[in-house]
User: Fold these one by one.
Assistant:
Number 1:
Amino acid sequence: MKIEGIELRRIAMPLVAPFRTSFGTETARDVLLVRAVTPDAEGWGECVAMDLPLYSPEYADGAADVLRRFLIPALPKNDADAYAVERALEPFKGHRMAKAALQTAVLDAQLRAAGQPLARYLGADRDRVPCGVSVGIMDSVPELLDAVHGYLDEGYVRIKLKIEPGWDVEPVRAVRERFGDDLLLQVDANAAYTLVDAPRLARLDAFDLLLIEQPLADDDMVQHAELARRLRTPICLDESIESAAGAAAALTIGAASIINIKPGRVGGYLEAKRIHDLCRAHGVAVWCGGMLETGIGRAANIALAALPGFTLPGDTSASHRYFAEDVTPPFELDDGHLDVPDGPGIGVEPVQDRLRAFTTATEWITL
């Protein structure tokens, strides 16, 4: 496959409500989209980097810069497919979110030309996936309970609560007491704690949580392993896992017993599949996390979440969880599940008038 050029497109997507985590509050998404154009098809990828380097060192402006200066010029001119792109980008250190967006755009074009859905290409065995929802930090426990009640009424099968020091034990207790022991409930700290907080985190053991996600710093697997020995609640790693090799290391030393796979964080869907295969071979549960993606990124994540090793509900969520109007036709919840796109490639395309309305800048780079 010959790549004729790459378009970088920035879009501004307001959120339906502020989303607060331990590292900040988002009210809108500044999204970098990548479009790969070939003689036979075009493909789309979404960069999940935020506008500020708070979740990870990457940020949207930086991703755009490294794409235009280094990654796009390195693309193979002919015989380009997703694996060739991965090999071409490997010498450049880091920048996994930028690499993932570019690789996904090429993979989407490749599969559209072949008439093959991404889910089938990856090895999915389901046509719908169960969905959980991530609930941000609220101003009060009553506000939190109202939000959780609303999401359960919509049909979400699992609730994830964002936590931080001072907003952890009491909110979790309130949700468990209000909605009962049958609720699938987990928490996400986004690296807000240290090992000194182990006694407080151990108090969460009383609430029969599915997992506690990324309690400690993303660069400290050793202390995660120590924390795991002090808790009954399973530890799941998110920010710490950047590759299949990293996942293998975490499992080897006991730093985690569950892995959250985010394709953007690990460099794309090929590496995400490798992590899935590793964990499945060792009987380790995985689930698909989210980064407030538009329908472009959401479609690809749903395809990934349909693989057999994804045994826990992910954070895929319906489109209207975050956006009043999406850049693609919306994904809608049906009995707590989302349908896996079955069209070629990622299975969805932007609605052109919406895309134009949300666009703030475009750049075309000819190969």
Note: The two ends are 13 Å apart (CA to CA).
Number 2:
Amino acid sequence: MNNLEHQLLLQTLALPTAPFREDHVKAHAAAFLQRHAIPWFEDPVGNIVIGCTDARGYRALLRAPTREPVRLFVAHMDHPGYHGVRWLDEHRLLARWHGGSPVKRLRGADVWLADRQREIGRGRIAKATLAEHGHAMDSLEIILPRGSFDQQRRPAAGRVFGGFLFRSALWTQGPRIYTRAADDLAGVFCILATARHWWRQGAGRSRAPFVGLLTRGEEVGFVGALGHLELGWLAAARRPLCAISLEASRTLPGAVLGKGPVLRQGDRRTVFYNTYLQLLTRVAQKALPGGFQKRVMDGGTCEGTATTAYDIPTIGLSVPLGNYHNEGFEGGPDCRAPRAPAPECIHLDDVAGELRICKALLAPGLPWDQAWTPVREQLRKRLRQYRKYL
């Protein structure tokens, strides 16, 4: 990872976001893409599509008469958070939580507040109600310091959103990065950095087709991805597709911080496309020998479930994530208690490795349809060796 990429990573991880309040991430992505003259457009449901200037060009790319698959890299721009519902008085806000959350020691936890233009303040949770399933908050009451807003400057409750507040939006301790929202801003970073690499390498007919899809509302059920899939553009493709889900996924045995990116074999709902998974392994062995992990990441579901459900061959890459959804599974700095609010944590080497594999997947002429050929030849060799015993 070069210096520009490192700075882009830190800038991206510091952004405020929540489901359907991805404006700061969208503005950051748009500015980066414009600065580097990388084509992009916004689809009808507000996702960012990178690699084409408009829907017409996107559909043309998908209809091109070639067997070279389109690499559709997918990451989401949101993170669990709250939306303001109404002001209870001049310094108390009732809010609704969207997505997963901690479930312990919520009262007294600090939160940040933002609107679509900027971060506007901080507060503290006075009361929280869990959802019926007991795995996340449903609603919360936030107390702001007196004098935070006067009557004229106080924003409408529905414009306010936020999440958990820690010592900073982001800080580092050695190779570890602590942040309020690594899931899935780490994936957003990888797509932006991969797009820049693709464009600088010469995105012409001789280059592998790249599409980046930065989605909205993933934390409440892949809503942005589903909206894009329902447009029918991908269903009308005449060439092969490979969806590549990029995630920051909960650490599990065999998927730990600092051991490299995870070649995600599936999620809690489904396994992914075995032929392309075999190719992913071959690419990773060459690009990052000994520097990756391999596992079904069943700590949660991801947008790979959505693309699989729409019959798109899918693979995945994950950065191991400590304190998934700000819940103190691993503890560490600023964690109030086990399963209480805590900053998410990722390892710089894992992100750098994921980016390296993403770039390697753009090599033209990869053996997508023959990924199992070397294995099959080894098996046939074994058969020849032992046939006399049959």
Note: The two ends are 53 Å apart (CA to CA).
